[in-house]
Amino acid sequence: MAELPEVHTISNDLNNLVKDYTIDDVKVLSNYRILPDKDTFIKQVKGKPITQVTRVAKNIIIELGDNLNIGLHLAMTGQILVRNGNDKQPNWTHIILLLRSNTDTQTIYYTDMRMFGKITLMDKEQLQVLKDKYGPEPIDPNADPADFYERIRSKRTSIKNAILNQAVISGLGNIYATDALFLARIHPETPTQKMSSDMANRLFESAKNILLEGIEHRGSTLADKMYVDIYGKEGTQQNYFRVYGKQDCPNCATKLEFKKVGGRGTYFCPKCQNLSVQEQLF
Ligand SMILES: [Zn+2]
What we know:
Monomer. The chain contains eight helices and eleven strands.
């Protein structure tokens, strides 16, 4: 499942590859969720130039100029794959974009096994509405840790739950949230009301570091291989996980605990992330 570092890698690579290409043709092969609808989508994007590929949180935004954008949300199993013209069509392909720049062509496949993702045509106002749904990103140099502290304190829940809420802080999925809490030595079930500003600062910094590390390693690919980059290559952040999916604490070798927090599988070290001692640790 693509989290921020994975979506960042995809949108960056896509921008480098197909910026300034024109969408020559569009094929929709299924009844995939397209908003407002399939026919409008095909009619509107055909013949348009790709001015830029960017990202809003975990949405990939293909900017077409002319106040038109394609938003792609990969959800659980969506993938964007570039293949040469002669290559076999990937499994679960729903949409094919045929792109051209002078004599160069590229074929982009949008695939999604479980079909929880969606594609949305958006004008400038709709794009702004999307942006407004998300809290600040820890990797944004303008993001303010004090604002983060206020946002988590405004929620009455566990800290793990709060940081998975994309309106509180944008970009942390289950994997990176789990490792960020470990790096900050904060128990995932710490009530937000018990978070001190020091703890919040530590967590904000850890979240930033783990996301930047994930980007550097081009995302994480788990055993299900559901995330690969646009060339079909796996990320390597899974080789650097601290506690996610692990047995023992990398700090103190204590056996890690695993429990569901807010319905999401959470690993933590009962010693390093101990609720009662964490205040004294720093
Ligand atoms: Zn430990």
